[in-house]
Amino acid sequence: MTQASTRRLTRRTAAAKAAPVAETPRHVGTLIIGSGFAGLGAAIRLAKDGREDFIVIERGSEVGGTWRDNTYPGAACDVPSHLYSYSFELNPNWSRSFSPQPEIQSYLRQSAEKYDVIDKHLFNTEVTRAEWDEAATVWRVETTNGLFTATVLVGAIGALCEPSLPEIKGIETFEGETFHSARWNHDADLTGKRVALIGTGASAIQVGPAIVDQVASLDVYQRTAPWVMPRHDRSYSKLESLAYQRVPFLQRAAREAIYWGREAYVLGFAFQPQILQAAQVMAKRNIAKGIPDKALREKVTPDWQIGCKRILISNTWYPMLARDHVELVTDGIEEIRGNTIIAKDGSVREVDAIIVATGFHVTDSPGYDCIIGKDGVSLGQIWRDKGQQAYKGASVAGFPNLLFVVGPNTGLGHSSMVYMIESHINYLSSALNYMDRAGVARFEVREDVQQKFNKDLQANMKRTIWTNGGCASWYLDASGNNTTLWPSFTFVFRHLTRSFDAAAYDIALTNTTSADHGLVAVGA
Ligand SMILES: Cc1cc2nc3c(=O)[nH]c(=O)nc-3n(C[C@H](O)[C@H](O)[C@H](O)COP(=O)(O)OP(=O)(O)OC[C@H]3O[C@@H](n4cnc5c(N)ncnc54)[C@H](O)[C@@H]3O)c2cc1C
Q1: SS3 per-residue string spanning 273-295
Q2: Which of 94, 124, 141, 236 is the most exposed place for a label (fewest CB within 10 A)?
Q3: 312 lines ligand 1 (CB under 6 A)
């Protein structure tokens, strides 16, 4: 990303911010909420389809979502970049297999510029309420920057977007610095400080090794030990980048190879968990290699089957835990008092800073509270009462003309979310084309279709390692249902979402008057 293009982006962003706030709602054909990989990808697709009548509302000051917000030291993807990127925008210049956050963020910014969708964004603007208006057959959308109506609403608000903070007695009274890994405080200088790191998930195992040389001491608070596999990371040579630039087919082939290598994991996750035993042996070797002390090795060895929670990758986590100024605390936190953390065993540790790396609200995200369906009830409320569910992860009965780009049960434990995102973008594009072609004013997935889809999905979920692996994870909701992950191969999902299946929906055509919404079901 050049400085000039950054300046251009900033100017355009400012222009978008300065868009006049309409007193009467401004109408758009499609309103996309969020501009991470999903919302941005959707905007690019709509532009490529020749659509102009859409807008992206983003509460942040620029595109990027996850990669704009997670700026902690060591932040990087854990799916190789050649796969963790848009299929239509391969990047021959990734510096290494698992690119660091600034590179991914820069890639997203450049993609937004290249496909000229920055002007379609309204940044620094939050959707505070989106309510379906049955009489007018539109979404009425309230934002911090004005009112809109939209024929179609696209929810691209991200599953790992709302930081989850631990409920620890006294944490709000802590005298030092405290912040979540997804809201890193870059003004806080950790040099020579006594630091506590709460959590041992995907972010924590990147943060810890990245700051360990800088701090005076690091206390790592572990609730459950993760399985950590070796990270096969390397930098790409100039020659490789050149080869990918000159012969794009080579990069496509590399991407395909990564895709199918990752897809093989599904056999273990979703069909034959015993296949994962080999991975568990490798993970145990990783522990033995990194930690000489037997007692510490025992503390970091999980008592559940590998794959049940997300498999993490790191070559530096275990060696870090073995360092003299690092302590692994497994007794849980009782209370924070003054500048001390009191563990459940009564031990007291003084700290200057607390880094909270406890993940996100996933199955209980407050992000859905602002979406109100035809019965006047919020999606957040419905999903809290009944558990999150949608048809193909995209549409929800009672919420007409709403499509998600990666809703419930579209997450992955093994491969690139961008693949799932692009599958849903195909579905969205197909739905909009179908609306134009058939003259559709309103579509709503049929309740029975949604129920059947989720019944089958949850039946498939029963055989997976995520349900049978002996762990509690953020994949599961309060009732123990996995409403997060897709329980099969990703190419199956791609096939299911290849085109809009109108037969699954109640459909009203444009010439149906708003007074008699006798829904006319039309075939696919
Ligand atoms: C640290 C970290 C590392 C990860 N690494 C990988 C990886 O290696 N591979 C992988 O496949 N996945 C990874 N993920 C998952 C990652 O979240 C997805 O891959 C992907 O980036 C999600 O994109 P998204 O657009 O769906 O959501 P997000 O990137 O979360 O974007 C959602 C956007 O919606 C905006 N928004 C939400 N609510 C509103 C509102 N009411 N009004 C306006 N705007 C709103 C948010 O500000 C945000 O910009 C990682 C996640 C994290 C947190």
Answers
A1: HHHHHHHHHHHHHHHHHHCCCHH
A2: 124
A3: no
